[in-house]
């Protein structure tokens, strides 16, 4: 699904319908790379967020729209220029793109390694496609909080879910919220 909240940025996020009976998989390949490693020096949190925004703008600029750049897994691994379009559930459409040229080399290498590993473990995985930039998968900053979810220094502010930096997905975010709700009930 389109997930951008800012002008001239292109961000996607996976979504499965409640029955999970669609034709396409909602899967992700995440490359965890420290911003300092990418920059080759220590950078501030603000610099990291500015770098991320530039990457999101780069994906937008490639299509000059909210269509998602995509290529096949095989094309990504072999660095072959994609030329064909494919069927998709992405509502704004796809544009063939050399994704390895839109990402930093360290991320490209990590994703390539992961895709090759998946190909060895999951029959038919290499027949799939990859699309877009899911740059908002979890918070780059972790809020300082107590075990109850209460933000340190506040009497009534709870930071929960992916935005807190303590959860990394739908299930862990839901569990984080439930734990905080139980703690609130117990203290009142």
Largest sheet: 3 strands, mixed
Strand order of the largest sheet: 2-1-3
The fraction of residues assigned to DSSP E strands is 5-15%
* N to C succession of SSEs: HHEHEHHEH
Number of helices: 6
Structural class: mainly alpha
Number of domains: 2
Helix content: 25-40%
Number of strands: 3
Rounded Rg: 19 Å
Spatial shape = globular
Averaging pLDDT over every residue, what do you get? 87
Distance between the termini: 39 Å
Regions with pLDDT < 50 over 5+ consecutive residues? Answer: none
Describe the fold and architecture:
This protein is mainly alpha-helical and 188 residues long. The chain folds into two domains: 35-131, no CATH class; 138-188, no CATH class. The chain contains six helices and three strands. The chain has a three-stranded mixed beta sheet with strand order 2-1-3.
What topology emerges from the helices and strands here?
Layout: H1 35-39, H2 45-63, E1 68-72, H3 73-78, E2 94-96, H4 99-102, H5 105-121, E3 129-131, H6 170-187
Parallel strand pairs: 1-2
Antiparallel strand pairs: 1-3
Give a concise summary.
The protein is mainly alpha-helical. The protein has helices at residues 35-39, 45-63, 73-78, 99-102, 105-121, 170-187; strands at residues 68-72, 94-96, 129-131. The chain has 2 domains: 35-131, no CATH class; 138-188, no CATH class.
Give descriptors for this structure:
188 residues, mainly alpha, 2 domains, 3-stranded mixed beta sheet, 6 helices, 3 strands, globular
């Amino acid at each position: 699904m389109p997930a951008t909240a800012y002008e001239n940025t292109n961000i996607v996020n996976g979504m499965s319908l409640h029955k999970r009976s669609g034709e396409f998989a909602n899967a992700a390949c995440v490359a965890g790379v420290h911003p300092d490693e990418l920059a080759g020096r220590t950078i501030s949190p603000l610099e990291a967020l500015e770098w991320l925004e530039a990457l999101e703008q780069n994906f937008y600029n490639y299509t000059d729209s909210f269509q998602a750049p995509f290529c096949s897994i095989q094309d990504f691994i072999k660095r072959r220029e994609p030329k064909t379009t494919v069927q998709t559930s992405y509502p704004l459409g796809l544009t063939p793109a050399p994704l390895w040229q839109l990402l930093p080399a360290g991320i490209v290498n990590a994703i390539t390694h992961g895709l090759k590993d998946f190909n060895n473990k999951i029959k038919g995985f290499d027949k799939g496609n990859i699309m877009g930039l899911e740059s908002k998968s979890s918070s780059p900053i972790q809020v300082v909080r107590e075990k109850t979810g209460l933000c340190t220094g506040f009497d009534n502010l709870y930071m929960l879910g992916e935005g807190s930096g303590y959860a990394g997905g739908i299930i862990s975010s839901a569990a984080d919220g439930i734990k905080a709700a139980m703690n609130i009930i117990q203290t009142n």
